[in-house]
Records
---
Amino acid sequence: MSQRFRALVCHDGLFDMREMGDATEELWFSEHDPMLIIHGGLDYRVPETQGIGAFTVLQRREIPSRMLYFPNENHWTLNPFNSLV
């Protein structure tokens, strides 16, 4: 056990995103709203295949969408020039 913490608290956290997507009562949102996907190539939290996969699904469903891919950014867009895009 860690000497720094006695326990980790997960408040309303999601574990199984697929199951949660089907279980939500929030059926009022539009599944056809335009979407912008932004992903960094150095993101170690979310694999780039997740961003590319989301964009591919949007394109296949003919939902207006664009993707910005920054090969030298991580989970956050830190480069000031990239933030302006």
Note: The CA atoms of residues 1 and 22 lie 36 Å apart.
---
Amino acid sequence: MNAYFEECTMQRIALLLVLYYLSFGMTSSQVKQDTDKMSLVVKSAEKEFSNDCLFITLEFKNTSNKTIRLPEFNYKQMKILYFTSVLVQNERGRIVAVKPGPPKFEFVEAPGETTYIEIPKNQSYRRTINLKGYLWHGKSKLEPGLYRINSHYWNWYGGECIKGAFHSNELLLRIKK
């Protein structure tokens, strides 16, 4: 019964994520998208991991001929890429870890808390993320097996910031026994 409840909950969460994604596309249709100016890549130096080390790198590549800006927030001295989500699925397609993206909100530039990442033309900005911090169901490690990792970046806010919905490649990683 507990496994059935967990599976139903996961399906509902996946449905909510899809609806959330679609709502961004519908509400932002008036905003010009800059999807030809940036690409998002998920990568890792390793293809096999132990549960002690679950680090991936998100790379934001500026493919335009101008500097681009990404909004970032300082939250208790931590820099947060607020508009970025990461989704990890196991071999059966079950979501096992999520770094959620933003809820809908009114963007207000807060002095001292809103900063910007500037990426010069034809250069990249990289951010390493530890997936252990986003595991679901109170788990502290992933089962051995193959996992698919995708990332998404949505932004419709911020002065002179890049805007649009950006989707990464799919990264396949194996967790060792």
Note: The longest strand covers residues 145-155.
---
Amino acid sequence: MAIASLLVQSKKKREDLIESGYNRWANDDQGLPDWFESDEARHYQKQIPISKEMVAEYRAQLRAINARPIKKVAEAKARKKQKAMRQLAKAKKRAEGITDTEDMSEREKMQHIKQIYKKAGVLGKKKPEVKYVVAKRGLAGKKAVRPAGVKGRYRQVDPRMKKDNRTMKMKAKAGSKQRGGKKKSR
């Protein structure tokens, strides 16, 4: 990137960069051993005419670009947020309509409002995070003791479980696709 900026900045810098390509370090000897060629390629080079500060500056720019969220991801998050806001506004409107009615008791009103907000996803319960602990080979089938350093809910799994679950899903998916018709003979 730093070299590319030198090419674009001015004609003189571009010509200087091209000129610096022809030097005493640029040679193409043939018939040399591989170890010698690799050693020469590593150590026998001319210094590039860019400063460390310039390289650091461009690296910082690239880090800033990479740290930014991808446009599509940002748009998807914004759409999700907008949808949640619309649902919340709709739920508020319906809740206000329920509070204005007089033919229900206060308790019924509260239950209805709670139900509306639950449907809107405001009162949705968050699933407790489950930590997965992979069992050692000898202990896979036995009752496990809580491993050291694991707090909260955990689930002990054996190393095969992931592969077994994947094959079961694939079989179920393949089974649902079979409609009929001719079977291929092998």
Note: Residues 71-120 form one domain.
---
Amino acid sequence: MKLLRRSVKFNPIDPLGDGLGDLIERSRMHPDRIVLNEPLDGRELVRQWEAIHQDLIQDSSWFNKE
């Protein structure tokens, strides 16, 4: 008795195929992006993250679970 043999093939998964690649590209082009190509200035980095933190605190919808 001969059994039919079928092979199943799957297409490779593209982790950026769901729009993530486009989102990353837009983030890289954003004027307020943080660029670390220059020597790291710790104080400037702290100021930038503090500004981001304050924006989050002032945005009441950020932590809203609705």
Note: Residues 20-58 form one domain.
